[in-house]
Design brief:
Number of helices: 4
Strand order of the largest sheet: 2-1-6-5-4-3
Oligomer: single chain
Structural class: alpha+beta
Number of strands: 6
Shape: globular
Amino acid sequence: MNTVSPTPAATAQDDIAAIRALLAQACEAWNRGDGAAYGELFTADATDVTYVGTVYTGGEEIGRAHQALFDSFLKGSRLTVEILEIRRYGSDAAVVVTRGDAHKGEPKRLGKLATYTLVRESGGRWRIAAVQKTKRNGLMEAFSFRAQPATRPASRAGWS
């Protein structure tokens, strides 16, 4: 029996689709207020660094902590994530930069950036190994660029 291996381009496209689906699942779990489902998307030893500097370790802790947030401060919130960039490193790792925010109602603006490190686990499933979130301060950024123009990054469409 002949088996045909997927072409590298097909595999890359499949991986990008799986990565996008993983982040969509994270939004769906958040929007349902389902901490367990949210935590399940992370590896057992994952790191989640929040924009306020809290560090959670492991999918179970991330899920538990988020459930407490979903039951209180984040009750009824929705998560919107826009992928800005996906970079694959080999066949089993990727870095994804996103812009997004948690909100109630329609988001006024997507004011947080997050960098995700994703890994493909032995069963072929992509999971979040790390995420670091940063609240964007446009005023300070503009001041920095004006005071020291050499600090302005190279143009990246859609990042600002």
